Structures are given as structure tokens and as C-alpha cells.
Amino acid sequence: MINKYFTIISVIFIFSGCIINKSNNNTYNLNSEYEVKQRSNVSLINRIRSNPGIYVEGYGDNAKVFLKGVSSINFPKEILFVLDGIQVGNYSKLSTILDPLKIKNIKILKSPVDLSMYGFMGSGGVIEIKTK
């Protein structure tokens, strides 16, 4: 005799996950310390300008740096510059305080995972600069 209050319920769990590749293709190291020594006469803006996916508008201290394809409805969003872990702002603010000969490493961050730690300010992309 089967108990009418006893019901077998089969439960199936489906796991849907995301695997993050450790070798992120959206992060670029522009210059190693050796390359910086070899090209010490090249300005910072020219090093940044020579990379794929970067658009530089203007020259000198008034240059504006953007990631190609990243913009909002009303205007394109400038890249956030981070100098030794401190958010500096746009390129014109950075160019007044940075000596190009003291640059050790430049890293461009494009992926949402990398940009998440900078919040809204980093939504247009981030260029991290480490000095000696």
C-alpha cells in the first residue's frame, strides 16, 4: 500500500558558470622598463597614440585620450589616468605632474572586469602608469 502523503520529488541542479581566462586580451602593457630606456626620447602621448584601439585628439598638454568605440549617448568618455595607484584624471592633468623619463610601465585596461575597481570614473577605460 502506497502512502498518499509521500511524494518523490526529483531535483536537478544546473550550474551555469563563467570561466575567466587569466591571460586577459583586454589588458596591454605598452612598455617594459627596457623599452622605456630604449625610447626615452619619445613623449608619453606618442607612446599612447601608437597603440591599437586608442584615439588621441589634439597635441601636447591639451590632448584628449579615448578608447575607440567607447562613448555615451551625449559624448565620448575620456580615459582615466592612474599614476602609481592614484587617480589623476585626464591627460592634461597628468602631463603637468609626470616626468616622462621616470615611467617604468604603462598598462591600458579595457575589459569590464579590470575597470570595475574604478567605477564610473573608469568607464571610458583606464591607463595605469607606474614610475620608478
Topology record:
Blueprint: E1 27-31, H1 33-38, H2 44-49, E2 54-57, E3 64-71, E4 76-78, E5 80-83, E6 86-89, H3 91-97, E7 103-109, H4 112-115, E8 126-131
Parallel strand pairs: 5-8
Antiparallel strand pairs: 1-7, 2-3, 3-4, 5-6, 7-8
Question: How would you describe this protein?
Answer:
- The protein is of the alpha+beta class.
- Helix content is 17%, strand content 31%.
- It is built from 4 helices and 8 strands, in the order E-H-H-E-E-E-E-E-H-E-H-E.
- A hairpin with a 2-residue loop joins strand 5 (80-83) and strand 6.
- The protein is globular.
H/E element string? EHHEEEEEHEHE
How many DSSP helices?
4
Structural class: alpha+beta
Low-confidence stretches: 13-25
Main β sheet profile: 5 strands, mixed
Query: Strand fraction band?
Result: 25-35%
Global morphology: globular
Briefly say what this structure is:
The chain is an alpha+beta fold. It has helices spanning 33-38, 44-49, 91-97, 112-115; strands spanning 27-31, 54-57, 64-71, 76-78, 80-83, 86-89, 103-109, 126-131.
